[in-house]
Amino acid sequence: MTHPVITQLLQRRSVRQFSGAAVAEADLQLILQAAQQAPTSINGQQVSLIVTRDKARIARIAELAGGQPQVAGADVFITLVMDFNRTAIATELAGATQVIEQSAEGLMAGAVDVGIMLNAIQTAANALGYGSTAIGGIRANPAAMIDLLQLPSKTFPLAGLTLGVPDPSQPGVVKPRVPLASFAMNEHYNQQAVRQGVEQYDQQLRQFWDSIGLREMPSYAQSTANYYQRIYFPTVAENLQQQGFAFKDQ
Ligand SMILES: Cc1cc2nc3c(=O)[nH]c(=O)nc-3n(C[C@H](O)[C@H](O)[C@H](O)COP(=O)(O)O)c2cc1C
C-alpha cells in the first residue's frame, strides 16, 4: 500500500472553490507551526508570514491580485514575505552591516525559502483537510501589498496562498504533468527529451481539458505563450528597488 504522505502528494491540486466554512484557529496554528520547521538557507529564516482573516482585507487582496474570485472566497489568506529585515537585525546585533539583499544570490536564497515554505503550508493544510491555491498574482501590485501589510524596507511580498474548506461538490482535479522522463533526467540534461515532452504534453493537456468539459482552456504551449511572451507583472524590479533590494554580484 502506498504511504499516506505519498498518496496525499500524488493527489495534490489547487483548490479554488470553498464551502465558506471557517478554518479552525487551532488547525491554523498547527499549520503555521509545521510550516515553520521547513528548511531555510543558512538558518537565516528569511520568510515571514502575514495571516489575513479579515474578509474586507481578503477582498482587497483579491482585487490587488488582479480580481481573483478564488482569493475573495477563501477563509484565510497568507502572504509569504521574503524577509531580509529579520536577518539585518541579526547582522546588526553581531556588529556588522548586511548587504545580501543587494545581491542576486540573496534574492534567490529568499525566493527559494519562500517557495519551500509555501509548499510546507499547503502540505500541512491538505493533511488537515483544507484546500489552497498559491497566489503569485499579488506581484501584480507589490507596492499596494507593501502598503496594506505595512512591510518595512528589505522585505517583499513574493507570493501568497488561500486557505479554506474545499467545496465538496467542486473538489478540483489533479492536473497532469509533462512526462516524468522529460522532467527528471538521468545524469545530464536531455534537450530532446524535454522537447518531446513538451510536444506530447501539449496534446495531453488539451485532451485533459476536453475530458472535463473545459474546451475553451488553452493547451500547454498556448497558455505558456500567453504568459511568457511578455513581462506580465511590470513593477516588480522597481518595487524591489524601492524596498532596498538590488540584483548584483558584489
Ligand atoms: C508561485 C505560484 C503562483 C501561483 N499564482 C496563482 C494565481 O495567482 N492564481 C491562481 O489561480 N493560481 C495560481 N497558481 C496555481 C497554479 O496555476 C497551479 O499550481 C498550476 O496550474 C498547476 O495546477 P495544480 O496546482 O492544480 O496542480 C500559482 C502557483 C504557484 C506555484
TrEMBL record:
Write down the Gene3D superfamilies for this protein, in alphabetical order: NADH Oxidase
Q: Where are the transmembrane segments?
A: none
Record has NADP as a keyword: yes
Which residues does the UniProt record annotate as the domain Nitroreductase? 10-164
Q: Which UniProt keywords apply?
A: Flavoprotein, FMN, NADP, Oxidoreductase
What protein family does this chain belong to? Belongs to the flavin oxidoreductase frp family.
Q: Tell me any Pfam family this protein matches.
A: Nitroreductase
Q: Which SUPFAM superfamilies match?
A: FMN-dependent nitroreductase-like
For this protein, the record's InterPro entries field holds: Flavin_OxRdtase_Frp, Nitroreductase, Nitroreductase-like
Q: What is the scientific name of the source organism?
A: Balneatrix alpica
Q: What is this protein called?
A: Nitroreductase family protein
